[in-house]
Design brief:
It contains three helices and no strands. It is mostly helical.
Length: about 90
């Protein structure tokens, strides 16, 4: 004897899109914050004149995040290219 569970009310597509947009907005903001943190770490290592291996590690992390951001549609392709080129020149 199973108890009948009440059905969920049907969402309108506009309400569903709103819920999806809120969720995606949080994910995108979180990702952008992570990228900015990587940028700050790289700039700090440049200011402190850290070892080349440390700079390379931070630069690789930035490259990785920017490429993932382009893949996910968070950053435009040209923004990633500009950022990567700018910091590659600073490290070199």
């Amino acid at each position: 004897m199973s108890e009948e569970q009440p059905k969920k009310p049907k969402l309108s597509t506009a309400e569903k899109r709103d819920k999806q947009n809120v969720k995606k907005n949080l994910q995108n903001r979180s990702f952008k914050a992570k990228t900015k943190t990587a940028l700050v770490r790289l700039e700090k290592s440049l200011e402190e004149k850290a070892e080349a291996s440390t700079k390379a590690k931070h630069l690789n992390a930035l490259y990785s995040l920017m490429d993932k951001g382009v893949k996910k549609g968070i950053f435009k392709k040209n923004k990633a290219a500009r950022t990567k080129a700018k910091y590659a020149a600073k490290v070199a």
